[in-house]
Specification:
Blueprint lengths: L1 E4 L6 E2 L2 E2 L15 H4 L5 E3 L3 E3 L9 H5 L5 E4 L1
Length: 74
């Protein structure tokens, strides 16, 4: 399975979180997609990116996303 990101729903925009959890500071209790990925395949850069070579398609990130921006495909 592959993860699809709907960037219109994603709270991570322009290198920062817009949902108020301050996950970009590294000091929050955020448990979003990047934090729950068991293999570290999700990174927050200017936008959320997935390293599909590392992703195991487990769906943990899909369950963790409060905005339903992630989905499993194929």
């Amino acid at each position: 399975m592959k993860i699809k990101i709907d960037y219109n729903k994603c709270c991570w925009k322009n290198g920062k979180c817009n949902c108020g959890c301050s996950c970009e500071s590294g000091k929050s209790s955020c448990r979003g997609c990047a934090e729950v990925c068991p293999v570290g395949a999700i990174k927050r850069k200017n936008k959320v990116v997935i390293d599909y070579k590392e992703c195991i398609g487990c769906g943990a990130c899909v369950e963790a996303c409060p905005n339903k921006a992630l989905s499993l495909i194929g």
